[in-house]
Amino acid sequence: MKPIFAQRGLIVSCQALPGEPLYFQGTMARMALAAEQGGAIGIRANGPADIRDIKSVVKLPVIGLLKRDIPGSAIYITPELVDVQEIIDAGADVVAMDMTDREDRAERVASLIRHCHEAGVAVMADISTLEEGLLAESLGADLISTTMSGYTPYSPQQAGPDLELVRRLAERLTKPLVAEGRIWSPEEAEEALKAGATYVVVGGAITRPQFITQKYAERIGQWLEQSDKPQS
Ligand SMILES: CC(=O)N[C@H](C=O)[C@@H](O)[C@H](O)[C@H](O)COP(=O)(O)O
């Protein structure tokens, strides 16, 4: 499979789910355009509508996924063939899917990967541990991403990015490695590259203003609480 991205660098995840303030048709395409203007080399996006919108306004490769809850299952990132097909049909260059080692899905995942490759589309594995990353690579995934670290019960539950996982994966993988999840500053993005990531995905810190605001409000609130300064 030929390289997906023109160069190493920043991929911006442009996602708003139902109930979020920016969940409004067309908003994620505007976010993607801003990301492109800012120097992103790729976009990650959820759902066929956003993927189509984004593909119509930016030239960058798009990693597409479909978040869908299935009753009784913990797997929600592009869980089944029908979801994979929707993302391929929407024009994504890469399909991202859950490749955590849960619910005994290795065989099904391998056939989803084959399906994407037959359609000429690459696959990104969203994993949470070293073992899952190695398994995903052996199943044929084209990119391995630390997306799910902190979101499976057996991976480290930490506030910042899982750079230790990036380091350990970088030592063992041959496929390109993506650092993703809770990267909140340019400095953390640089640390992820130093740890061995080929690409860095940043989402909330760029495209979810409610969380950005919350970070400022909390920090300011803490300072105000500790300070004796009277309000003028
Ligand atoms: C765990 C999960 O479902 N992650 C999702 C995957 O597509 C997105 O909600 C995240 O925004 C994305 O991974 C980027 O991460 P962050 O927004 O932390 O930079």
UniProtKB/TrEMBL annotation:
One Pfam short name: NanE
Source organism superkingdom: Bacteria
Reactions accelerated catalytically: an N-acyl-D-glucosamine 6-phosphate = an N-acyl-D-mannosamine 6-phosphate
E.C. designation(s): 5.1.3.9
Pathway: Amino-sugar metabolism; N-acetylneuraminate degradation; D-fructose 6-phosphate from N-acetylneuraminate: step 3/5
Keyword Isomerase assigned: yes
Keyword terms of this UniProt record: Carbohydrate metabolism, Isomerase
SUPFAM superfamilies with a match to the protein in the record: Ribulose-phoshate binding barrel (SSF51366)
CDD domains: NanE
Family: Belongs to the NanE family.
Purpose: Converts N-acetylmannosamine-6-phosphate (ManNAc-6-P) to N-acetylglucosamine-6-phosphate (GlcNAc-6-P).
The protein, known as: Putative N-acetylmannosamine-6-phosphate 2-epimerase
